[in-house]
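Hey, quick one: can you model this chain's 3D structure?
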Amino acid sequence: MTKNTRISRSLSLVSALVASCLFASACSQATASESAHPEITQEEMHMKDIETLKEAEQIWVKSLTTADAKLLATLIDDHFSFIGPDAQVEDRKAYLAGYEGMKQAGISVESIDLSELEFRVLDSADEPAQVAIVTGRVAAHVTMQGTPIVENVRFTRVYRRTPDGWRMLAGQGTRIPDPEPPKG
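Sure thing. Here's the predicted structure for all 184 residues.
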């Protein structure tokens, strides 16, 4: 191998590593404290956290509309738990299995509408937030074994900061009952 070939391969490897690092940085939330980044104010960090949580919610939407358990697995924490609209409790493994079995069960999610979103990042005076809570409303347009339905749910999701970014630690959904038809 010539010297120029070795240099070219080394540069390619360095470029790939830099690209990987840039991609990882773009996909995960920075966890450095203000002391490590004095140019970032606490308010700026708070807003950056909220933007990253909004992106995480969109990953959740995409994983549901595509029945992509692998994508969802990148978002949910190893210690994840979920309480569903019918009060069933699922751990991470069961929750992911539900996504994996959607197609076989004849379930497809046509679209998800998120609304009434509130993002709360629980800041500390001397370090970046470690916990965030997202609440809101979901209207899921679903086809179940050929029958279209709309599931309306209010939800709470708890995220925790990890070295890999924000991870969903817990979720809970409460079905919103259909309004009663007017009498008379």
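One thing worth noting: Confidence is low (pLDDT under 50) at residues 1-36.
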